[in-house]
Structures are given as C-alpha cells and as structure tokens.
Here is the input.
Amino acid sequence: MSRSVINKTSSTLSIAAPINLLTLGQIVFMSLLPMLLLSHFKLEITQFWQWIISLWANALELSIREHFPHIGTDFSWEVVKDGSVAPSDSLLSLTLFTTVAIYAISYFFSDDYFPLKIIARALCLIQVTSVLYFFAFPASFPYTVTSHITSLLKVGFYYMMAIAPMLAVGLGILKIPATLRMAAIVAILGYFAVMLPHKALLHALILESTSVLFMPILFLCFGSLIDLMIFISLYAWLVSLTPTPQTLPVVKDAV
Here is the structure.
C-alpha cells in the first residue's frame, strides 16, 4: 500500500457571502431604495430623455418632435413626414432577396459558428415575416415611429426599475462591501439612463433612413433583448472583479 500527495489548485472555494439577516436586510434596502427613487424622479428622468432626443433629433435633422412637451411623464412623439418611412415595392423585393440569401448562406457555416448560424436564421425569419406582412397588408401596419420610440422608452424605464432588485440579489450574495454594491447599482442605472434615449434615437434614425419594414426586428431583437444582454454582460464583468480567495493545495490520499 502506498501513499502519494497530489498538489492541485482548488477552484471550488466559494466567493459567496453567508446569507444572514444583515445580508437579507441589505438586499431588501438596495432593492427598494433605487425603485422608490426612480418612481419619485420619473418626471425628471423622462424630461431628461426628451431633452436628449430633441437635441440630437435637431442635430441629425430627424423629422420627429415632441407632440405634448408639457406632459413630462408621457413619451409622446410624432413623425412629421410619415410617408418617408413607408416601404416601397423595390425595398420589399430587395429585402426579401437579401434575407433569403443570408438564410441560405448560413447552411455553409461550419459547426464552429453554430451560435452565429442560429442567430442569423432567427433574424432572417423575423425579417421575412415582416416582408410578407407588408406584401399582404401594406396599409394596415398599426405601429409608427412615434409608438416605437414611446414603447422603447416606457419598457426601458420599467426595465430600470427591475434592474435594482436583480443587482441587489446578484451582488448581495458576494463577499463585497455594501457601499461597493450600492455604487455598482447606481453606476449601472446611470448607464441605462443615458443609453436608453440614445438607443431610441438610433432606432428612429434607422427607421427614417429606411422604412418601418425593419421596425419588428429592431423592437424584438435590438430592443429589450439587447438591454438584457448588456445587463448580463455588466453583471458578469462586476462579478469578475470580485476578489477570489487564495487557492490552496489539496492533499489527496491514494491507496
């Protein structure tokens, strides 16, 4: 019978903090406080977003303007040149051909690009559905650039409300000081407060430069889904900055 010692670096040591009443209290506090502040300052936030959109819309010469600027809690916008965003027959045909071509090309992707293949096909299916809809019902599309921007900002605001408790729970279980956790929540909320109106502006610029034909894919794939992916990326980055305990050698007995 022999005995050997095998030294390894162990990655199983936990970086999570023990859940106790103090931790639970901090999680509840860090969840409720940002939500209450966002709710209380909704008027100021929406006015700030309206100011950003108005500023860049004028600079980019976009044909959108505030419809009821005195109602700060409403995201109400209108397109001055509605006809400029209606899809033409040539645009419908070109988009259909391009989308089908991209879908066909995806079959030549190797297995190394399988995630890209799935994403490309999903985007193509959404866009083809939009094209077929406009071919069949060209005058009955119920949404405008106005309603698109309004929906993006409203969903974005309530998404910010949900970020606070998600971060409070996700960061609350880690061994980091409470002040750093609160600072991370404030920083991420501040990022979204600036990013959301600029994303809405980018959508408006794309739609006015092209057509509402691309509104469904913008809303479904580059709206709240992008917000969620950005949030996950930021959270993963914050977790990666969390100091990990020193790895220790593991002593194993062998018979």
Observations:
- The helical segments are 21-40, 42-59, 89-105, 114-136, 145-172, 178-209, 215-221, 224-240.
